[in-house]
Design brief:
The structure is a single chain. With about 400 residues, the protein is α/β, with parallel strands linked by helices. About 35% of the residues lie in helices and about 20% in strands. It contains 13 helices and 18 strands. The protein has helices spanning about 50-55, 60-75, 85-95, 110-130, 145-150, 175-185, 205-220, 240-245, 270-275, 290-305, 305-325, 355-365, 390-405; strands at about 10, 10-15, 25, 30-35, 35-40, 45, 100-105, 135-140, 170, 190-195, 225, 250-255, 265-270, 335-340, 340-345, 370, 375, 380. The strands form four sheets. A seven-stranded mixed β-sheet has the order 7-13-12-11-10-8-9, with helices on both faces. Strand 8, helix 5 (about 145-150) and strand 9 form a beta-alpha-beta unit. Helix 11 (about 305-325) runs parallel beside helix 13. The protein is globular. The structure holds pyridoxal-5'-phosphate.
Length: about 400
């Protein structure tokens, strides 16, 4: 720490050598244990954010660390010119999860979606011919920060300075079957959707909308991409959120919790796309390395155990109940959103209140040892590690309630 002591004041980093697209001040964490994190001064925080829905098995896991260590001693990287047993094993496990023929590995959510867009475009070009390349995405949807995934992200605040992005991306409101039916035709290569809009306000797709997507995409031969980067691998109490509404995607994208905090993404594709692919069409130097894949294999074994998923659902119900009990006491709180361990609480910005109340709630929670997230303009997002226990939920909700009390007029 000696070399950077000039940047650190009270467990916080200032004058940070990171670009200004990040905050000007960062809390510095030193270690974690289960659902807790500890800062440089040893202060304890309960983690209701999981590093933006990533650390789903909690912090400081020796079992996962050991897997990574054992694999690092053997081989760390081979490139995509060769492969390794952990990568093969993981690809087989992921492929078996649905109607998928192959798995493309990358390193982040945005890369998984970038690959999905390319695969859908390639399919459409080969099957339907030049010009049928449009992409349909949802209002309030979020798919990442690289140029293709960003084009499919709705919030213009993230996009305007970088125009022109990928062209011919159009947006429709989620759950409006009529607009979808009027809009979608075979000139579209893909529709990209989230079942729960993780970044955009936790709105959830209806079963009726999922059914319309399934039918219309088949009718017009449009590739249906389910972005499960945030909702996948047990976050909702089910392996994937698609099953909550019976969405039948052609492509599924995964990342965040896949390797328990190590960077790994997967784009799961069907045979009808794989059949058109030839060497060189897409690739990644780092994607699917043996260390991340070995850890991800272990993550899937743990999370997809039916009793683990049942516990996630139980914890989710308990958290939703506690959140509701807490929210009822305040004039500026609204609906509870989400499901499983991806939950939200609406904050109603009081008229005439000059500051961003939600931002203040997040900051004050952090000061009091609770880490929470934001979703959209006005939703507190709670996405704790999936291993959270009821007494830890109580502990977090107690801090949260006290924080809310301090804002009640
Ligand atoms: N897709 C969804 C649904 C996400 O929530 C995110 C990140 O928040 C991404 C894609 C982008 O993932 P990454 O930040 O790993 O590129």
């Amino acid at each position: 720490m000696e070399e950077v002591s000039h940047l650190i004041k009270k467990a916080k980093a200032h004058k940070i050598p990171f670009p200004k697209n990040y905050a000007s001040e960062f809390l510095i964490f030193e270690k974690g244990e289960g659902v807790y994190l500890f800062d440089l001064d040893g202060k304890k925080y309960i983690d209701f954010g999981s590093g933006i829905a990533v650390n789903s098995l909690g912090h400081g896991r020796e079992d996962l660390a050991l897997t990574a260590y054992e694999q690092m001693k053997k081989v760390v990287h081979t490139s995509n010119l060769y492969t390794t047993e952990p990568s093969l094993v993981l690809a087989e496990k992921l492929r078996a999860l649905g109607n998928f023929d192959a798995v493309h590995f990358g390193n982040s959510g945005t890369e998984a979606n970038e690959a999905a867009i390319k695969y859908a475009r390639l399919y459409s070009y080969n099957k339907k011919g030049l010009g049928n390349h449009k992409i349909l995405a949802m209002e309030a949807g979020f798919h990442g920060r690289t140029m293709g995934a960003l084009a499919c992200t709705h919030n213009t605040a993230y996009k305007t300075s970088f125009e022109p992005l990928l062209t011919d991306v159009e947006f429709v409101p989620l759950n409006d079957v009529e607009t979808l039916t009027k809009k979608l035709d075979s000139a579209f290569a893909a529709v990209i959707v989230e079942v729960i809009q993780g970044e955009g306000g936790l709105k959830m797709m209806t079963g009726e909308y999922a059914k319309a997507l399934n039918t219309l995409c088949k009718e017009h031969d449009v590739i249906l991409i389910a972005d499960e980067v945030q909702t996948g691998i047990g976050r909702t109490g089910w392996p994937f959120a698609c099953s909550l509404v019976d969405l039948e995607p052609d492509i599924m994208t995964l990342a965040k919790p896949l390797a328990a905090g190590l960077p790994l993404s997967a784009t799961l594709i069907p045979g009808k796309i794989n059949d058109y692919l030839k060497p060189g069409d897409h690739g990644s130097t780092f994607g699917g390395g043996p260390v991340t894949c070995a850890v991800a294999g272990q993550v899937l074994d743990i999370v997809f155990d039916p009793s683990f998923l049942a516990d996630v659902r139980k914890a989710g119900e308990y958290l939703a109940k506690k959140l509701e009990e807490s929210a009822k006491k305040f004039s500026f709180t609204g609906k509870i959103l989400g499901t499983g361990l991806l939950l939200g609480l609406e904050i109603i910005q009081p008229l005439g209140y000059a500051n961003d109340l939600l931002k203040e709630i997040i900051t004050k929670s952090e000061e009091n040892g609770l880490l929470i997230l934001r979703s959209g303009k006005n939703i507190v997002r709670i996405a704790p590690p999936l291993i959270i226990e009821e007494k830890q939920i109580d502990e977090g909700i107690e801090i949260f309630t006290k924080v809310l009390e301090s804002f009640e007029i």
